[in-house]
Amino acid sequence: RRVLFRSPRGRLLLTSGSRLMLVSSLTSGGGVRVLCEYREPGGEVLGKAAGDNIGEYWVNSSRRLIRLDSTLRPIQTIEPSGSATGLHASDITDVFIDRSQCLWVCTFGHGVNYCDLYEKLFFTIQPEEGQPNSLKGNIVKSILDENGERLWIGTNKGLNRYDYKTGRFYFYNDGSTGVRLNGNNVSALLVDREGR
Fold it and tell me: Which residue of 25, 103, 181, 196 has the lowest C-beta tally within 10 Å?
């Protein structure tokens, strides 16, 4: 099991194979209580999850997104589509909801998809050949919001930073920013206690 998301009420959202569980925080005896759960039909393994401001949750299987209510009952399933404003994903690796209620969907081979949860339209960010201000790497493994100002994106090509205000991308594995990573593959990102 792994902790995926902590709700504002201090509840934890966990996956275990094809199960998604909402559990209470640790009790004085060190245990947890399962409040409700969702089981993915067909037993497909569930990935990461995120919660929005209205108490709904989003979780991914490898090929689709599932939107659930506060009791983990499915509301909507979103499959990849060929539509210009639909989900473009062959394999989903991570999901994240930022402070402005934008759902970010990391994919294996299709860059990053994002969706304004109020508008319900998806857009895709992929590398653009010859464009310095674009995402580097189509295999996106991790994503992290830094205080609502920047979005860090870990890909198979290195570390990318997206500035919300300017809409610009910065790449941190080519030496141009003074930072050079020892490898290309960035699979995890974390903010420390001081917010760094």
Answer: 196
**And the tokens for 162?**
């997206």
Q: Which residue has the tokens 């299987």?
A: 61
Which letter does DSSP use for residue 103 in this model?
E
State pLDDT tens for residues 12-64. Answer: 888 889 999 998 866 667 777 888 999 998 888 998 888 888 889 999 887 78
Q: Starting at the edge strand that comes first in sequence, how are the strands of the sheet with 112-116 ordered?
A: 92-97, 102-107, 112-116, 121-125
| b/e map 81-111, b = 16+ CB within 10 Å | eeeeebbbbebbbbbbbeeeebbbbbbeebb
- What one-character-per-residue DSSP string does 124-166 give? EE---TT-SSS---SBEEEEEEETTTEEEEEETTEEEEEETTT
Distance separating alpha carbons of residues 183 and 83, to the nearest angstrom: 35
The rounded distance, in Å, linking the Cα atoms of 73 and 66 is 10
